[in-house]
């Protein structure tokens, strides 16, 4: 099944690569057409990525998995590149593909980018060990104990008395109710007396009630069946896990065990087969190489009159000479090179004279026509860093796996012939190094014996001055040379190791334990009117699932894969801005959970009073980024990051010095390289209190996290009630709750649900179903996000670099002004060149 899925996905990928290679040559002017093309490629790559991720997780053949992993990483990187191109084209982080999805007959849910399971599977043991060490350090230092609030003795006695009196009052009320009911029944019996009952009338009344009850139940059942048939209500046992899903999970666990077993067998086979090749084929390879090189010596001697120079080790040795060539072809190349050298010597003098004459002449003025200027304005798809690896993987698939007969390999174990083919090249390369050393000595002996040549010893190059380097110094773990003002800092005799630095950061509260929160816990719904609103020049607010997708693209995928992080568009810092309660902190913990990253807390409130002074701050940053590099991936979180860039520090916060990191943060970002899987994430609920210019300079990507819309609130109420033990019935109108809570955040909704669904209320649901009226009192006591506050965030975002470009592009003539500026700049540059 999964082999068939892989073949189908690979065919789709091959056709997509062919189309994209054609589009690389073409040039376009229409931005709408360009965006449609990029969006179509993006959507198709997402579909391929979803299939490949599923295939890689389930296939057990070790050699197939290596190839699929290479293509999977390439597809992941290409998605990030296309996303970057769309952002530069539309000048917006959020895109809407309603019309394209309709043409491709896809649902919005199929745009959801999955998180590859191998991010955590491949380092699960490392993550467990790290969590165990972190928990042990917290337990030893006493930081894991919850603070217990003390209570005075008199207040404790008073609390017990109140609870006991309430219990006695409830019992007394129950007892009095029973007495009242007994007296009422006795009174009714005395009033009615001993009246003789009519048996027929009694039977008729019982029949009437019973038939009415049966008919109402039948009508209710038929109505429920009709609603299920129409898809308006879920079928019975919809929320329960089916037996098929449980069986599928068991099969997945078995597949994982088989994958591990096959991987171990494959690694062992690599060693044993290589050793076997060295013993059986090694002597023959060695002898054939020596004969081939000796023949080259003799042929060169016969043709040129002297022995050739042996290539250096840096140039590849004899492999450079005999790479896919016969000895005759090598000799022809040598003769051709000698003839070219003689011709170049003769032409050298003439060429120098002609160049001098050209320099004396004046440069002619270059005239640029309108057609050339229009060609410069045409958009052309940028070169991809991932397409070559994807094409290489596709070629390997075509050559090896496309038409391979695997009828004899039912368990899907490793292919021995493929390993031999791969290892034979390694064995030949290793033997060639040994043969080169022997043949160099043999060539020297031949030269001495035949030509009586004496080789002069090669002069050793001048050695550079050694610079003593200290590991403590620059920000982010960069070494400092002697004489630097901070070179003497941190030269104590204390043995600084990663373990000791890790422990110190944990004890200081700078390295914290991330909460286990999956990205799927960030609940929301898609925006189905984004394209329609943009057609009428209205910028829609992003939906919660749009935010979730950006977190996946900018945070999770680059941190999870080292191969993707090195080549993909580099995102070093990320800012999450939005009102309180929209889930910014949750998203930070989600990035750490999904990638297994360490979480460092450099918030202004957390570093206040720690490592005081300039040297102390540099020491703290050095420790944090040294550990972050060694134990990558890592996330550096700055909560309430607007305090670091305050326009004016409030009087009550001046003692904490919240702007300590303001000057250091841009320096840290410059030191981060593509191979450093470190992401700086800032969260803020008051971005307008910060200096905009320095704020936007520090954060490369800015994501505005909105309050939930109606669709997201509907899904939120439904899922959060169920997750907290609630039962959805007809008495509970979810649509009503979603409308009433317009303006309230996800945090407000979660607190309301937890406040209503206590243990006692959950047990009462069978007799007393939940109703919307129970949630209203708690909602009324909370403050929503008003439209004025939302407008403040919109206006602030419009002042950011990307927001300004977007506003300028939407205004009438905005794009024309930009193109005119570009033309003027182009004319000035051409004049300078002339």
UniProtKB/TrEMBL annotation:
Q: Point out the coiled-coil segments of this chain.
A: none
Query: Biased-composition ranges for Basic and acidic residues?
Result: 351-365
Ranges of biased composition (kind: Basic residues)? 822-834
Q: Please list the residue ranges annotated as the ATPase AAA-type core domain.
A: 574-689
From the UniProt record, which GO molecular function terms apply?
Answer: ATP binding; ATP hydrolysis activity
The record's region (Disordered) falls at 338-365, 814-834
Alphabetized CDD domains for the sequence: RecA-like_IQCA1 (cd19506)
- InterPro entries under this entry? ATPase_AAA_core, N-DRC_Component, P-loop_NTPase
Q: Which SUPFAM superfamilies match?
A: P-loop containing nucleoside triphosphate hydrolases
Key words of the record:
ATP-binding, Nucleotide-binding
**What's the protein called, per UniProt?**
IQ motif containing with AAA domain 1
Q: Which organism is it from?
A: Ictidomys tridecemlineatus (Thirteen-lined ground squirrel)
Quick one: which gene encodes this? IQCA1
